[in-house]
Design brief:
Number of strands: 0
Number of helices: 9
Oligomer: single chain
Shape: globular
Radius of gyration: 16 Å
Mean pLDDT: 87
Order of helices and strands: HHHHHHHHH
Amino acid sequence: MSVALTSLGEIALVLGEYSEADQLAQKGLILAEKCSDPTQVPVCLRVLGLAACGLGDLKGARRYLHQALEAGMTVRAMPWVLDIFHGIAMLLAAEGEREGALELLTLALHHPAYALIMRDRDASLVAQLEAELPPDVAAEAQERGRARDLEATVAELLIELQEESVAAGEMVSRPPLPEPRDS
């Protein structure tokens, strides 16, 4: 049931229905935790992060994506970790950090654990970022991304996402889950 709710949340994201995506992913997360399904937790948290980003809540997006990355590394689900990179890249782009977003996506696109089903979505974002950056800056970001190590990048991101949340005065650990909101 958690997988179905989170999948519906993914569809809501694509349709730009961020509040609906948030509600579905919240319900999916509650079920994943009740059913002790740790492999679904990072997926739910990623959807929550993207929904928060779409709603303009960049602090909330940062918090959820940090938690998603931690959860993904806990279960060693590298394809999901690379999918979480997409969410972090979206957050970085929303914060004006297009070069960092492009670097991160390039790492994901060239990693052997990358799920090909995500290629079109990520290639589209890469093209958008390339168009927004000077060509030499984009090329350098992609070169750095191809040279990056996944484990080291995850460690850096966890620190960066946590530090910025703490600097903003936010809680770093996940607060108790809210009750699902009725639609």
